[in-house]
Predict the structure.
Amino acid sequence: MLTVAKFDRYDLVNTPGTEKPAFTIWFSGCSQHCEGCYNQKLWDPSAGKVHSVDAIVVAIATQRGYTGVDDVVFLGGEPMEQDATDLMELASKLRNAGFRIWLYTSWELDDIPNGIKNNMYTIKCGRYEESLKCDGIPSSTNQKFYRKSGDGGFVQIALGGSTT
């Protein structure tokens, strides 16, 4: 079971570099408590509703029929603080259904379990650091984007055009 604060069925913000909408899942719970966080309401792990993996997959697949979304974004809160087995199952089912999955996490790339990482298309890594705040995406200069490469690994990429 996964705790979700909100579903955004037509998100045009969190997939920089694309012109298409995404289905975004705002997960509840974050123990990082970064100074200056813009999602402090999502720190509370109970600030949402509990959903089964299959219910989330059905909701996203249904929305795809209406809007043609091909991208799904996991953010929050901290998605990596959800049940790892359920998060991996959700990512796997979505990837197998042809979705590209984006993960926004404070974790570093090497700390993400392979079972989750291997299902991702793009990963934004790094805590939000108020002293390194910048405009746009990413929101602080220490954060990095990685994209899955042809060999199955990840390479750092520049996205969003943020300025310091």
In short: The mean pLDDT is 89. Helices lie at 53-67, 84-96, 114-117. The chain is about 20% helix and 25% strand. The CA atoms of residues 133 and 140 lie 4 Å apart.
